[in-house]
Amino acid sequence: MRLAYRAGFGAITVLALFFVLFPFYWAFLNSIKRPEETFQPTWIPFLQFQPTLEHWRSQLATPEIRHALLNSVIISIGAATLALALGTLAAYGLARFRFSRPSNGALTTWFLSQRVLPPVMFVTPFFLLMRQFGLLDSVLALVLLNATFTLPFAVIILSQTFRELPRELEEAAWVDGASHLQSFLSVVLPLALPGLAATWVICMAFSWNEFLFALSLTSKSAIPMPVIIAGAEHTRGVQFWFVGVNVLLTMLVPIVLALLAQRYIIRGLTLGALKG
Amino acid sequence: MDSASDNSRSLGYETGPKAAPSKTRTDYTKFVFIGPAVIWIVAFTIFPLFYALYTSLYTFRFGQRFGFVGVGNFTRLVTDENLLSSLRVTLSFVAGTVTVEMVLGVALALLLSREIRGTNVMRGIATLPLFATPVAVGYLAITLYYEQDGPINSLIQAFGGKGIPWLSDPFWALVAVILVDIWQWTPFVFLITLAGLQGLPSELYDAARVDGAGAFQNFRYLTLPLLAPLLWLILLLRLVEAFRIFDIPVSLTLGGPGRATEVYSLYTYRSAMRFFDHGYAAAQGVLLLVIVMLIVSLIFSRVRGLYEEER
């Protein structure tokens, strides 16, 4: 009985792992196989086939892809930094001050409620407004929008982080004559650094993955990686080796960022209901 | 500046759960903290929301406003066969993905929560699909579903089955999109349920064991009721996300074959960005908002408890 349970448990774990990991390995495999070997059932590089970095080299040398990668980096860093700045202030306000009408709880819910709005309903207004301000096909437009969409995550993750900090340290700073703003800058922020870094990184990952507005508002110079990918197969047909490279180029950044912020992901994903 | 912040220490500062509200003077420091984010949301969410409502009442094409049509765009919704078709596709997608993801994710979490070893590795691995760029996942799936000798059909044929016309058959194309979403989002249900299970008080289970409760009784009378609010929250978040699905069908099937996988957001996107029928697209957005709000209002009361303890 015990043995049967262990065996069943092991089998399910292996199956789940295979299901999750196979697509990544498949992309990696295709990215290092020669085109003519694509359909051969060979799975182990060096042993079964001779890997090549040719596809990686040629994709990374393509101007459009380099430009899109650069755009994605600028958009993610810009949006995450903006969301972090706004979110840190708001989160500290919610964690340490008492609001009435609307109450702290109502304010937090208000910040979070933006997450349930269907994004597609904003395509038309943002397109018309950005056109009005001459921001179509600009990196700035995507920085502003992604900062908006990730702001709720920043507010919720950070307000919990601030609540967990001991108040005594701030009180001690005030006794020493520091103002509220001074204690915020020199006591609270350094203590909250891990939370701040994790929030920044999570906001970056979400901004990197954003697709709908990147597709709607860019046409040439501001195109980020996800949009490059979406258009590729319709112009050139499916080339497995380039699919492998492009997919990994796009995915690896947000995945690595998310793994860095592992500890804070659960509270972000549950909008603060669980601390994880 | 200095004197204002001096006051904030004793007045606006919340010293405990039952801190006395300030009676003497309003402290303005707190508005310095919360103000920028509030203004930002008003400018970038509330204002565009109302702008969308306003647009939906006009004939608004190619970036130009024509006549006021009142509910005209909304009556068009009801008679638009293609819109209704996209709504049906979306409902099938939501039903298929959310059901499987909830059952599979919760089952896996229950199974693995007994293991102490390797939980962190499990969490790390579950994070991978969650943060993999959805468009890239859909694009990669084209090669996985490749009908001639792609890996999935090869596997099916190796077990003696017949290859499936994944992307050329309307039914299977929708299944293909649903499967990709399941791959991406089951880890979400799994991760959160696992975290919830690990946060349950072990004393209760000790007490139940003393009383002679079995595994099934534990689950039925302890785990399930304790976990219920969290499961409702996961369901709510999954429903909200599933209704907005866009990235995967765009990169995997482009809505095809025919309109078989043209989901609601894709249809609205095309109305807005291909046909530049902004007024009508805005009306579609408003309808989707109403649908999502309906779901939220049905479920939210069961979830609220999760948020109340600390406020």
Short recap of the structure:
Chain A is mainly α and 276 residues long.
Q: With helices defined by DSSP (H or I, 4 residues minimum), what is the helix count of chain A?
A: 13
From the alpha-carbon coordinates, what is the Rg of chain B to the nearest angstrom? 25 Å
Q: Spans of chain B of 5+ residues with little confidence (pLDDT < 50)?
A: 1-25
What is the CATH first-level class name of the largest domain in chain B? Mainly Alpha
Give the rounded overall mean pLDDT of chain B: 86
Looking at the overall shape, the CATH architecture of the largest domain in chain B is: Orthogonal Bundle
Approximate strand percentage of chain A: under 5%
Distance between the termini of chain A: 33 Å
According to CATH, what is the topology of chain A?
MetI-like fold
Shape of chain A: globular
Q: Structural class per helix/strand content of chain A?
A: mainly alpha
The number of helical runs of chain B is: 14
Outline the biggest β-sheet of chain A: none
SSE arrangement of chain B, N to C: HHEEHHHHHHHHHHHH
Sequence of secondary-structure elements of chain A:
HHHHHHHHHHHHH
Number of domains of chain B: 2
Largest interface: A-B, 105 and 105 residues
Quote the beta fraction of chain B.
under 5%
Could you please describe the fold and organization of this structure?
The complex is a heterodimer of chains A (276) and B (311). With 276 residues, chain A is mostly helical. Chain A has helices spanning 2-31, 54-60, 63-96, 104-113, 123-132, 139-164, 167-175, 180-191, 193-209, 212-217, 225-236, 240-260, 262-269. Chain A has a single domain (25-33, 52-269), classed as MetI-like (MetI-like fold). Chain A contains 13 helices and no strands. In chain A, helix 7 (167-175) packs antiparallel against helix 8 (180-191) and helix 9 packs across helix 13. The model of chain A has no long low-confidence stretch (mean pLDDT 89). Chain B is mostly helical. Helices cover 71% and strands 3% of the residues of chain B. A two-stranded antiparallel ribbon of chain B has the order 1-2. The longest helix of chain B is centred in the first third of the chain and has 32 residues, at 81-112. In chain B, 40% of the residues are buried. Mean pLDDT of chain B is 86; it is low at 1-25. Classes of the chains: A mainly alpha (276), B mainly alpha (311).
